[in-house]
């Protein structure tokens, strides 16, 4: 389910509710518009939509026209595509502070389907707004280039760490990656077995067997509820990774 509200981002005095909301935003300094100076903010004359998605809701579909980019304020988003054989693959993740949907900046369709893993909060930024701001002399063009590089690095790391090597090592590396997106209580989003298979190119049976082994070893503790969350023992995870790397 998607919920949306319009947020005007005209620069106004600090007593304005939106000015207060922007000042209190926890990802403001690391988000795309953190690169703008006051003059850049003064040139904004449009609306940004604040979006909230439930788990498994689609943020945007593969192949649809890219009209906006999105900043992830909270939660975790996965990117899916289907191979020519009809196999589903999850090709990367994005979390808090990340910019997604950059294809829109080149007026291209979205390359992957973006799906919420957890409850997700996004800011939808129209491409026309980015184009307007990028024509200025500010730091936004450089910030966009840096974020393209971050996305490229993430994709290359995903291939290097999660698409090659023994199945157990790939799963351990995935858990390490998920720990980077843990919630304030230290819990991670726990993919379904079929989602693990789609991420790591392994069968559901292999994923289930490995998860059971990690639970017995104390590396992973699944939540008792249906919240699809888990808690990791960081020391046990690192020990298991060292054992795999030295094997």
From TrEMBL:
It holds the Pfam family cNMP_binding. The keyword DNA-binding applies. SUPFAM superfamilies: cAMP-binding domain-like, Winged helix' DNA-binding domain. This is Transcriptional regulator, Crp/Fnr family. GO terms for cellular component: cytosol. InterPro entries: cNMP-bd_dom, cNMP-bd_dom_sf, Env_Response_Regulators, HTH_CRP, RmlC-like_jellyroll, WH-like_DNA-bd_sf, WH_DNA-bd_sf. One of its GO terms (molecular function) is DNA binding. Residues 165-233 form the HTH crp-type domain. Residues 32-133 form the Cyclic nucleotide-binding domain. Keywords: DNA-binding, Transcription, Transcription regulation.
């Amino acid at each position: 389910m998607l919920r949306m509200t319009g947020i005007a981002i005209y620069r106004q005095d600090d007593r304005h509710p939106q000015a207060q909301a922007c000042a209190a935003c926890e990802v403001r300094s690391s988000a795309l518009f953190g690169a703008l100076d006051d003059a850049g903010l003064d040139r904004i004359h449009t609306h940004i939509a604040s979006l909230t998605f439930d788990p498994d809701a689609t943020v945007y579909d593969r192949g649809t026209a890219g009209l906006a980019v999105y900043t992830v304020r909270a939660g975790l988003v996965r990117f899916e595509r289907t191979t020519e054989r009809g196999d589903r693959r999850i090709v990367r993740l994005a979390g808090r502070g990340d910019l997604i949907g950059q294809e829109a900046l080149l007026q291209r369709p979205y390359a992957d389907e973006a799906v919420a893993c957890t409850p997700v909060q996004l800011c939808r930024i129209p491409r026309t707004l980015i184009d307007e701001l990028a024509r200025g002399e500010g730091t936004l063009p450089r910030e966009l280039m840096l974020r393209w590089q971050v996305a490229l690095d993430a994709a290359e790391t995903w291939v290097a760490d999660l698409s090659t090597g023994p199945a157990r090592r790939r799963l351990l590396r995935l858990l390490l990656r998920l720990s980077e997106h843990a919630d304030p209580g230290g819990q991670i989003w726990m993919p379904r077995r079929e989602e693990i298979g789609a991420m790591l190119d392994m069968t559901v049976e292999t994923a289930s067997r490995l998860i059971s082994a990690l639970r017995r070893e104390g590396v992973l503790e699944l939540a008792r509820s249906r919240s699809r969350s888990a808690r990791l023992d960081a020391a046990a995870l690192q020990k298991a990774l060292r054992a795999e790397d030295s094997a």
